[in-house]
Amino acid sequence: MSAKDDTGRGGRRPVLSVRDLTVQVATEAGAKTVLDGLSFDLVAGETLALAGESGSGKSMTALAIMGLLPKPMARITSGAIRLGETELTTLDEANYRRIRSARIAMIFQEPMTSLNPLMRVETQLCEVLLEHGICARGEAPARALRLLQDVRLTEPERRLKQYPHELSGGMRQRVMIAMALACEPEVLIADEPTTALDVTVQAEILDLVRTLQREHGTAVLMITHDMGVVAEMADRVVVLRAGREEEQAPVRDLFAAPRTDYARALLAAVPRLGTASARPERAEARKVVEVDDLSVRFDLAGGLLNRTVARVHAVENVSFHIHAGETLALVGESGCGKSTIGKALMGLVPWQGSIRVDGVQTGGRSRAAMRPVLRDIQMVFQDPGASLDARMPVGAQVTEPMRVHGLVAGSELGDRAEWLFRRVGLSPDMLRRYPHEFSGGQRQRICIARALSLGPKVIVADESVSALDVSVQAQVLDLLRELQEADGLAYLFISHDMAVVEGVADRVMVMRLGQVMEEGPRDAVLRDPRHPYTRRLLAAVPVPDPTRARPPIPDTAGIEAASPIFPVGRGPARVALEEARPGHRVARAT
Amino acid sequence: MGAYILRRLLESALILLGITLVTFVLLYLVPADPARQIAGRSATAETVANIRDQLGLNDPLFVQYGRYLWNLAQGDMGRSYLQRAEVADLIAARLPASLLLMLSAIVTELIIGLTIGVVAALRRNRPMDHSLMIFSFVSISAPQFVIGILLLYVFAVKLAWFPIGGYGTAAHFVLPSLTLGLLGAGWYSRMMRSSMIDVLSQDFVRTARAKGLAKVRIVTRHVIPNAILPIIAMIGIDIGLFMSGIVVVESVFGWPGIGQLAWQAIQRIDIPVIMGVTMVSAAAIVIGNLLADLAAPLIDPRIKTK
After folding, report:
1. What is the per-residue burial (b if ≥16 Cβ within 10 Å, else e) of A275-300?
2. Nearest neighbour of A113 by CB, restricted to B204, B221, B222
């Protein structure tokens, strides 16, 4: 079955039909085409995925359909968007307003910022209902409650009266979905709806979208960069690249036999859980990081004298070590304390316990005394755009650590910078450029070069590839691997992405609420997990294969509600680890 | 909440104590003799010395300061050197006029400033925006006594729409409030404009548009309440600026407030009155800040008073 035959879906008329859509954005260098002749149809009840990497025009398509392109910079220069009998490209603002939410609704990537922080959930839901005349003012609250029940939000009555900041990311996304479905639209556009969420929450939200779609017959346009989500959700896929359609096919055909080189490369770059090759055997090396009983607590002040009334127990009694040349992956959901451990290692947060870097105790040191330690341990952060100084040439940023530590001076700095740039696969003639002149992947290479400049023994990589497209992600991971093999670097690899972790880790440590749930060799933890929490995390990872259904996630009751905040004098029950097999420690089930 | 207010009040008392010390030391160091001011130019050195002795001005600084604090603790702000009246009475007689002027000036500056800010942000980079920003720039730059005299000349002398000076009816408030409020209006219009532009690009505004809401509702319910948050903290700080402006404006318009009282006292080194006026203005600033901090969580549910 070819893509053309499929668009008609047995002759059913499409609810949404996009033809030759071209969008241009005004830039200083003149008009730039960001969407070029895109065409697709969407039939009631089906899910069409728009897949592609950043800059491919996925979100532009969504905004063009919603009539929300940022004016006056972006505009539709040609093409047609038909919603049933209505042509949208020529519609005036007043009529467009009546269509938004009523006939096409949209949910966005960032549930944390997509709701008005000053308005109760109830008001935000009711205003859609009232604006589109769905019900009378008096009935609106009851209807809003029913919407929250529809999206399976716990304690819906209480949620109505709450403000967005009182809800978790997953709850907020449910509220967004409730809002989007308030007027029973024909089309729902979901723009990366689960990208900002933890995998288990992602799985729940995707389930919810599927269920609601079945109940209401809504057509879903799913915009995502995640081929796992595509495989799980889509009936058909449009693969976009630089504003053009690369390939349009039913989901199974695309995954089984991609016709274009680009789609093939894109699918090949997707990390798949359970397919990673074996890690190279390492000779038993010395320990470069030894952490014993590490705890990090943040005080919360209050009361008359502003004394500490409660503490966030971000990390509790965590012990681990990393050998030279080894990668220890730290995984867990947001708020589990994994990034805090990275910061404690760098001396960026106050901590208790013992941390040794290459045998040197780092506790109780002043900032100045911490410096020699930092030569051995460096960090690479998540957002390469934000972790480089926008107003300093990249060459100067890469050599700055050497200057600060007084290791290299004068003309030698330039030579070192060139050498570092070659190490990370960048051309030395780029040294004088500024960060905005580089792509995301190149920027992360610069950050890695900066981390390497002091010749560290350990690198803390905190979600270092999470913000990158899969193809770029694979290249950066390869670079990290090469550096490790050449220099015997040790990595503390902090990530939420289990498939990526599988590709890089020698050992894996799973954390929850500041404590270790399971720790051991990669294959033991990821292929034969013993702790229910690890199993749950692994089960929630979307499988980039439409022929394999993801197994249902084990029951999650009570897990979301747990909090690491305790009154002074109390703390979480200490989790005891038992050795399930040599080197594989598992928290005793409570 | 109660504990928070109590703690803030205790902090405020400490701040006021610090202000009395700084003011007292500064006045002590001023190279002018209050006794000579009281006695007059023709008085003999002996008379002046007598007065100095009577007022305890020969005592060491810490004794004088201790005495002042002791009296203050008992609610006694001292007697004016020149006006033969209790400082507390002098201030009490003039404070209401100043507070009313301040209140009407704050309302004026907020109405003008916020309106301009909102309109300019919604018409960003268009001629309307540019002309409003020129206006705000002028109102920030122009000295208050110039604006005051200009307004007086045009609206009181030439057009005779408002009284030239004095205090009593609503009409008396218009020109002084405008004079005092224009400076702040300029500041607030710029702050509100950039705050609005910031909020207009937020995700939740895009959500509001995607919901198909009318533009008026998006602006009034989603954008303005969020844009106004950073302004609220500013209003508390702003009262300090008002206090300095009030001295000038009350002189220009002959407004019977504490600004005039302060002006006269400063000219003649009437230490108890200067101290009293300073204390009252400092208290106003501290209370203004406290009110602003207490108002913030009422508008922004994310802020908890702890």
Report:
1. ebeebeeeeeeeebbbbeebbbbeee
2. B204
Residues 6+ apart with CB under 8 A from B126: none
Compare CB distances from B302 to A66, A102, A165 and report the shortest one's residue. A165
Are A119 and B222 in contact (CB < 8 Å)? Answer: yes
Record the pTM. Answer: 0.83
ipTM for the predicted complex comes to 0.81
Phi first, then psi: give them for residue B43, nearest 5 degrees: -65, 150
A384, containing H or E segment: none
Mean pLDDT of A282-293: 88
Flag if B207 and A114 touch (Cβ within 8 Å): yes
Chains A & B: contacts with CB separation below 8 Å: 81
Which pLDDT tens digit goes with each residue over B251-294? 888 888 888 888 888 888 888 888 888 888 888 888 888 888 88
**How far, CA to CA in Å, does A544 sit from each of A225, A266, A273, B65?**
12, 12, 9, 79
> Sign of dihedral through CA atoms A471, A473, A475, A478?
negative
Q: Does the domain at residues B96-299 carry the CATH identifier 3.10.105.10?
A: no
Chosen for mutation from B8, B200, B207, B213 (greatest number of chain A CBs closer than 10 Å) is B207
Look at residue A556 and tell me whether its pLDDT is greater than 50: yes
pLDDT tens digit sequence for B158-209: 888 888 877 878 888 888 888 888 888 999 999 999 999 999 999 999 999 9
Nearest to A101 among B3, B204, B210 (CB): B210
Ranges of CATH 1.10.3720.10 domains, chain B: 96-299
* Mean pLDDT confidence for A12-22: 91
